[in-house]
Amino acid sequence: MMKYFVTAHTSEGLVNYLLTNVTDIDRVIVLQHPSNVIKTKILKGLIHFYQSEYDIEMICSPDDKNYIDGIIVRNISLAVVADHIVQNMQLSAQTIQLENYINHHEQNANLSYLNKEKMRLQEKAYAHFKAALMIHDQLEDVYINEMDFEEADKIAEQFMTKLFKDIPVRQNEATVYERLFGTNTPDGFMNYLEELIEPVSKRIFIKGRAGTGKSFFMNKVLKATTEHGFHIELYRCSFDPNSIDMLIIRELDICLFDSTPPHELFPSRKTDEIIDFYEKTVTPGTDEKYASIIQQLTKNYQAEMRIGREKLQATKLLEAHKESAWENVSEDDLQKIVQEIVKEK
For the chain, what is the radius of gyration of the CA atoms? Predict the structure, then answer.
């Protein structure tokens, strides 16, 4: 089962890439209900029903490690998603009002307040993430000033020449699925990077410092891949969504990903390859030359990120209060909804 995020808490606020993942899906169902626990239980029931026969894509939630925001079953062109990730979105979908099926009418009088307070804390988190990005940009400047851009271009051109050798441009239009493999959550930073790349044979570990061309390199590969007509999974950075953290081209059985903290991995197969942009494009001794500046900027950046994560963590208690109104909903009622969905073709 493939797991990823389509929404994330970032320096630009809450981002949402659901549309790119369901544009080619014939049947989209939206589960309408205030309770994330109830929607998650229904989605888990659907996973249990379909997973023995089909490949499942699980859309994970940035709001709680135990929540699910949706599933996609591409084999039968079906997507079932929670209502909160389709708000203000132009999407042709069937909406299921879950309260019509659930024999439970207790209302949480504080629901509006709890939701507003949760949003207030999230906005504070975004402000700290944005402040961290501004510091991160200063850190990038240190390395940009010591970088050989011609060498970075050469690395990209050599890689693409090798990647697309003897592969003709295809006539079909490429599809780009935009996602995230991880994000900051109230439970800390979560990511599914290892699970996503495990089945891929050729794995390219991109190393480097801030601003040394990792995302620039992947943008070039993305452009070339789409021009060749291949379908591609584009995983954006959960800190700065304008940057790319990973590309997977399953038709070529290859992936390229930013292997630096907080999602640093190390090669474990003979077919794994490292491209280190710090080693290849940055003036030797840059880390040592600017050590005190780098140390201070890193400290300031980490402080802002820590406060932002603390604001997200504070939303867990509010979420627990909100969900308490539906803790006694019948499992039989939820199972009936699952059966209603799976019996319709």
Answer: 22
d(CA 30, CA 261): 35
CA 79 centroid distance within chain:
17
pLDDT of residue 342: 85
CA torsion through residues 280, 285, 289, 290, sign? positive
Whether residue 145 contacts residue 210, with contact meaning beta carbons closer than 8 Å, is answered with no
Q: Give the C-alpha distances (Å, rounded to integers) separating 57 from 36, 71, 82.
A: 18, 6, 14
Q: Across residues 24-52, what is the average pLDDT?
A: 95
Beta strands 68-73; 13-16: pairing state: unpaired
Q: Which token pair is 92?
A: 């042709």
Q: What is the model's pTM?
A: 0.94
**pLDDT for res 340:** 84
Judged by phi (left if over 0) then psi (alpha if -120 to 50, else beta), residue 180 lies in beta
Pairing assessment for the beta strands 2-5 and 57-60 based on DSSP bridges: parallel
Task: Measure CA 107 to chain center.
Answer: 33
Q: What's the DSSP call for residue 173?
A: P
What whole-number percentage of the chain has pLDDT above 70? 97
- pLDDT value at 8 more than 90: yes
